[in-house]
Write a structure and sequence with these properties.
Blueprint lengths: L2 E13 L3 E4 L2 E4 L3 E2 L7 H13 L5 H4 L12 H14 L2 E11 L9 H12 L6 E6 L5 H4 L3 E12 L1
Parallel strand pairs: 5-6
Antiparallel strand pairs: 1-4, 1-7, 2-3, 5-7
Helix pairs in contact: 1-3, 3-4
């Protein structure tokens, strides 16, 4: 096989705080997220896509929420760990496409910085990383401003 595809999804409820982490970027916001780590839904969904492409389980298997080591952890470390698992098996991310679902914060002004962080952590060109955003038209938990979600798809190619 010369390529594999994985998809991932993550969601976090909003909680007290003054920022959210998205794609490795600290974004000022009137709320934070409820999470064991830094709650970066973009990177968590990406990790699940990467792990899923090689049937290596999900992010919770590799970084259990009950494990105190991951309390407040920087999710960029999760991405780098997942990338090392792929590379040990002879794979690398060919491209990644992530969609953030929320009414706020606005993602567009931060999308390029998020692409750059992810590209650095995966050792790939920034043009192989896509960050998009959409609202849920004020429907559901994201529409009511109760939380934030992201879904990711990645293509793995032989390294």
């Amino acid at each position: 096989m010369t390529m594999r595809i994985g998809q991932g999804f993550d969601v976090h409820a909003f909680a007290d705080g003054d920022h959210v982490m998205l794609g490795g970027v600290r974004i000022p916001h009137e709320r934070g997220v409820q999470a064991h780590s830094d709650g970066d839904v973009v990177l968590h969904a990406l990790c699940d896509a990467m792990l899923g492409a090689l049937a290596l389980g999900d992010i919770g298997r590799h970084f259990p929420p009950a494990d105190a080591r991951w309390k407040g952890a920087d999710s960029r470390a999760f991405v780098r760990h997942c990338d090392s698992l792929l590379r040990e098996r002879g794979w690398r991310v060919g491209n990644a496409d992530v969609t953030v679902v929320c009414e706020r914060p606005k993602v567009g002004p931060h999308a390029q910085a998020m692409r750059e962080c992810i590209a650095v952590d995966l050792g790939i060109d920034v043009d192989a990383v896509s960050i998009k955003a959409t609202t849920s038209e004020q429907l559901g938990f994201t529409g009511r401003g109760e939380g934030i979600a992201a879904q990711a798809v990645c293509l793995l190619v032989r390294a």
